[in-house]
Specification:
The chain is mostly helical. The protein has 5 helices and 2 strands. 69% of the residues lie in helices and 5% in strands. The protein has one domain: Protein Binding, DinI Protein, Chain A, CATH 3.30.910. The longest helix has 55 residues. Strands 1-2 form a two-stranded parallel ribbon. α1 packs across α2, α1 runs antiparallel to α3 and α1 runs parallel beside α4. It is rod-shaped. It starts with 11 loop residues before the first helix and ends with a helix.
């Protein structure tokens, strides 16, 4: 009898790593930006000072309450997908173990074993495709989340600037093209306080 293919690819690993990587990234970002807000408190520059100010975008985003809420929602979705794939993986592993036991002990005919082997191959392929689909869904969800957060910040800055009257509010970040900015022009703390207050008010409605 033709020796069967002993296959097994743990499709769940991809999504599990996605969750841990996101958590690690968020944690590292908080460590890097957590002190930035406290360092920007003080006198808020007026438009007469030159009309150009900036916010530390990484710090603002990381400490924005909407970011926390949306990140928790996304993580919950990831955990559900992770659990779903894990259950399907366990079922597949159980079926595979049963197949191997029957093959090694000669408990099924060659035709039946070939049929089971073909079914397991299809099941494995479906698992891999499902894992890839879940990864793509989560990547899209994450991109949408980031756009929502950035749009909310931009909308708030329009309101914020109606009173302040700045000509430019720049966004400084690690990969931004701003090579140097005077800390006296940093309005991150003021914007963060205002945008979080607005967010909390809207959540209560």
């Amino acid at each position: 009898m033709k020796k069967p293919i002993l296959f097994f690819i743990p499709a769940i690993v991809g999504v599990s790593l996605l969750i841990s990587c996101n958590n690690k990234k968020a944690s590292e970002q908080e460590e890097q930006t957590g002190t930035a807000v406290s360092q920007t408190t003080g006198t808020i520059p007026s438009a007469a000072d030159g009309g150009i100010v900036y916010v530390e975008l990484d710090s603002l985003t990381a400490n924005y309450l909407m970011t926390k809420d949306l990140s928790e929602e996304l993580e919950e979705k990831m955990k559900k997908l992770d659990a779903d794939l894990t259950n399907k993986q366990r079922t597949f592993q159980s079926n595979f173990n049963d197949f191997r036991n029957k093959y090694e002990k000669g408990l099924e005919t060659r035709a039946k074993l070939a049929e089971i082997e073909q079914s397991l191959a299809a099941e494995e392929q479906n698992l891999m495709q499902l894992a890839e689909r879940y990864r793509m869904e989560m990547a899209e969800e994450q991109a949408v989340m980031q756009r929502k957060i950035l749009q909310a910040i931009m909308d708030y800055l329009k309101e914020y600037n109606k009173e302040k009257g700045y000509k430019y509010i720049l966004g400084n970040a690690f990969d931004a093209k701003i090579l140097y900015a005077d800390p006296m022009l940093d309005i991150t703390a003021s914007v963060l306080d205002g945008i979080n207050t607005k967010y909390k008010t809207e959540q209560k409605k």
